[in-house]
Design goal:
With 317 residues, the protein is an alpha/beta fold. Helix 6 links the parallel strand 2 and strand 3. It is globular. The chain starts with a helix and ends with a strand. The chain binds N,N-dimethyl-L-histidine. N,N-dimethyl-L-histidine binds next to strand 12.
């Protein structure tokens, strides 16, 4: 990794303090889910991905493995892969191994510290690949470094993260990704509507990892912002809303209490909930409609035999 890229990682200004203060002063308190992913939260999310109840990761990985050759053919040779919310960048290795002479890889992730380690490991394993990491919020317009020598850019947005946006916001985000990519295609993983009991279990695991992931928002505020949240006085609550077809995640205050934030105190009544995440589920058709509204032509779609998860190849119109 050269010095310029290291700077790109260091210079990203995290807005956690602002996001937390604004969110907790709303009538319906909220903390935007993008703040889950500091180094601690990213590690907890990795642990979630390995949980028996969390079918998404293993199902998507199996789909990628099974269809890697076909996907590589659709992407084409000498492509630059841009991954939105790269996390551990484990899934992209399946693509990189299948692609013909991949030219470059540009992972974008909100956690600069996490991205640094990921990129170092990739550089060792793929010495010929041009790596252009970007620490930042991919929901905001980002300038991707100029494309030199690649035949085509292809976006990669796995993990069902598109579900963490409302359908309208998902459409707007897909449109922005299409613009950022300057044409080309996008491979996106989308979680499917299914038996609510399976969904409920996936977000309420027996080992309590998802609860720890949710509470890490408060732990992070204590670590980074000298806040004083009492973690034992908040409960993880993640019901499925069948009408809206989404899991909703909350931290519920178990008593009347207050907490110190950098810009003053915040009060909680007993039973008051902080909304921390929505995870929308789609049918294949409803997702393809959103992609079409965002200016993509939905092409191939792959799903598993139990129809738990789907992978969509979209081409910019
Ligand atoms: C990242 N995202 C797709 C996960 C999801 O399933 O919505 C985040 C998550 N929240 C709780 N468990 C996992």
């Amino acid at each position: 990794m050269d010095a310029r890229l290291a700077e790109t990682i260091e210079s990203f200004d995290d807005s956690f303090a602002r996001g937390l203060s604004e969110g907790l002063r709303r009538a319906q308190k909220e903390i935007p889910c993008k703040y889950f992913y500091d180094a601690e939260g990213s590690a907890l999310f990795e642990a979630i991905c390995a949980l028996p109840e969390y079918y998404q990761t293993r199902t998507e990985v199996a789909l990628l493995r099974r269809h890697a050759a076909e996907i590589a053919g659709l992407i084409g040779a000498r492509a630059e892969i841009v991954e939105f919310g790269a996390g551990s960048a484990r899934k992209v290795r399946i693509l990189l191994d299948a692609l013909e002479s991949p030219h470059g890889y540009s992972p974008i992730d909100i956690s600069g510290a996490y991205l640094r380690g990921v990129v170092q490991r990739l550089a060792a394993d793929y010495p010929r690949l041009r790596l252009a990491p970007l620490a930042g919020d991919f929901t905001l317009p980002l300038q991707l470094p100029a494309l030199a020598g690649a035949a085509r850019r292809a976006g990669f947005f796995p993990g069902g993260t598109i579900g963490n946006f409302t359908p309208d916001a998902a459409m707007a985000l897909l449109r922005r990704m299409r613009e950022m990519l300057g044409g080309g295609g996008l491979l996106v993983g989308v979680d499917l509507v299914k038996d609510p009991a399976l969904l409920h279990a996936a977000y309420n695991d027996a080992a309590g990892i998802t609860a720890a992931f949710n509470k890490n928002l408060l732990a992070r505020a204590n670590r980074e912002l000298a806040a004083d949240f009492d973690l034992d006085a908040f409960a993880h609550y993640a019901p499925y809303n069948p009408k809206a077809q989404r899991i909703e995640m909350y931290l519920v205050s178990l008593k009347r209490q207050s907490a110190r934030l950098p810009d003053g105190m915040v009060e909680f009544s007993a039973g008051e909930a902080i909304h921390t995440e929505d995870s929308h589920k789609y049918s294949i058709e409803s997702f393809r409609e959103i992609a079409a509204r965002a200016g993509f032509s939905p092409r191939a779609v792959w799903t598993d035999e139990n129809r738990l998860f789907s992978l969509h190849w979209l081409e910019a119109r």
